[in-house]
Design goal:
The chain has a domain of 37 residues. By secondary structure, the chain is mainly alpha-helical. The protein is rod-shaped, with a radius of gyration of 24 Å.
Length: 66
């Protein structure tokens, strides 16, 4: 048995941890994007359901003017 095996295990463990961290960040970012898109779709559906005109031209991501 040599001491080199421990170094390889530490490197693969670090790579796995970093890979898991990157995967978690990607999943959270996609989840946030999905929630925002679903909210925009719900606003559009509400506009269309109330039979308003020009629902396509509404900017949902901007705050309404005062």
């Amino acid at each position: 048995m040599s001491g080199e095996d421990g170094g390889e295990k530490e490197q693969s463990g670090l790579a796995g941890t970093l890979g898991g961290l990157v995967a978690a960040i990607v999943i959270v970012a996609l989840g946030i994007w999905l929630v925002v898109e679903m909210a925009d779709t719900a606003r559009y559906a509400e506009c269309a359901a109330s039979r308003r005109r020009n629902c396509d031209n509404i900017e949902y991501r901007r705050a309404p003017p005062p």
